[in-house]
Design a protein that fits this description.
8-stranded mixed β-sheet; globular; 180 residues; Aminopeptidase; alpha+beta
Length: 180
């Protein structure tokens, strides 16, 4: 089993925050498919192939090994139901910045798991990536996410009007940062 970050119970479910393994690709495929079906406010808007998920996961696993990425999956009762990662920017003039991605299955939202996951991935990034800040962008209409980010110390530093597309509708991109 991969590195375990935290273990706890939520609504009677055993929940584990841990680093991913290659065998998680099938569960991640199902998770991303659930976001597409839900039309969630995430970057994926069409169902990926299992090959694309495996390639993406493989890239992230190599990034973990090279200290360029920290990645946590949320395992609930044996299935991957969420994920978060922070990836260092590649160009040397920006290598002190990490970019955050966080996704949680709709059945696990509203239970405090998003905040726990966000705090855990930030702690892993602080320990392992040697970055000074974490940046993100989210959709302006995604108020629950914006409120969560603010709760853990992110500050809005800009807005790109109509900067993101969500199923053919344009929305503002809210740019946020947290300094360590």
């Amino acid at each position: 089993m991969s590195k375990i970050v935290q273990k706890f119970k939520v609504d009677g479910k055993d929940v584990i925050f841990r680093y991913p393994e290659a065998k998680d690709a099938a569960d991640i495929f199902k998770l991303v498919d659930s976001f597409v079906k839900e039309r969630a406010m995430v970057g994926e808007h069409k169902k990926p192939t299992i090959k694309q998920i495996k390639e993406s996961l493989d890239k992230r696993l190599k990034g973990i090994k090279n200290k360029e990425v920290v990645y946590i999956v949320v395992e609930a009762d044996g299935k991957v139901e969420g994920r978060a990662w922070i990836r260092k920017k590649e160009h040397y003039i920006e290598e002190h910045i990490g970019n955050l991605v966080i996704h949680l299955h709709k059945d696990l939202r509203g239970k405090g798991l998003g905040e726990k996951l966000l705090r855990a991935i930030l702690q892993e990034a602080r320990k392992n990536l040697k970055i000074k800040m974490v940046a993100l962008e989210t959709m302006g209409k995604n108020r629950p996410a914006i409120n969560l980010y603010k709760k853990v110390g992110f500050k809005e530093y800009g807005k790109l009007i109509k900067g993101l597309k969500h199923y053919e509708k344009l929305d503002d991109a809210i740019l946020m940062v947290k300094y360590f």
